[in-house]
Amino acid sequence: MEKVLVSDSELVTLYIRGNEKAFEKLVQRHKSRIYTTIYLIVKDQYVAEDLLQDTFIKAVDTIKSGRYNDEGKFLPWIIRIAHNLAIDYFRRDKRYPNVVFEDGSSVFNTLDFSEDSVESVQIRQETHEQLREMIQRLPDVQKQVLIMRHYEDMSFQEIADATGVSINTALGRMRYALINLRKQFNQRAPQYDKNFYLR
């Protein structure tokens, strides 16, 4: 732990002036939080480690090119970089968030069987794919908030900070995301006609 806590803004300024160790301090200070943000999306240790390095590389490139201007809010800024890289991987790898219903159950929990028969496994796989497709159809801002809330388990304050909007805006986007997703889901699978739970 640093005896005198230098702010992120001061460390960025020092790094811009040529102090390489300043960025190392930023890395040590925030790498755990950034790694967790990535891992909660990709669910793979090695992929998360790679994306963590990519995040810092992109941050360095942005700072050194003179394009960094976030009024001292380094952590929300670099979290956004990490989140975007992880979401890009999420899209390529066709992964999906866990959407929670009103009663607290997951959409996937409705498909639990006493035995993992070939048929039940196939049904779950098909439902996973259908939900992923529905999420991809959402407007980008709604999709982003839904994934951050239900997959990364971020608070609405954290979502607001990471996306640069007010809490009310983040809440509104989540509400419309769940409404739109529920409409799609009910059209495909009316047997799961429940209200989504907005936590």
Automatic annotation (TrEMBL):
CDD domains assigned to the protein according to its UniProt record, in alphabetical order: Sigma70_r4
Family of the protein in this entry: Belongs to the sigma-70 factor family. ECF subfamily.
The protein, known as: RNA polymerase sigma-H factor
Keywords, sorted A to Z: DNA-binding, Sigma factor, Transcription, Transcription regulation
Species, as recorded: Dyadobacter helix
Database matches in PANTHER family: RNA POLYMERASE ECF-TYPE SIGMA FACTO, RNA POLYMERASE SIGMA FACTOR HI_1459-RELATED
Lineage per the UniProt record: Bacteria, Pseudomonadati, Bacteroidota, Cytophagia, Cytophagales
SUPFAM superfamilies from the UniProt entry: Sigma2 domain of RNA polymerase sigma factors (SSF88946), Sigma3 and sigma4 domains of RNA polymerase sigma factors (SSF88659)
GO molecular function, one term: DNA binding
Gene Ontology terms: biological process: DNA-templated transcription initiation
Gene: algU_5
Keyword DNA-binding belongs to the record: yes
Domain named RNA polymerase sigma factor 70 region 4 type: residues: 129-169
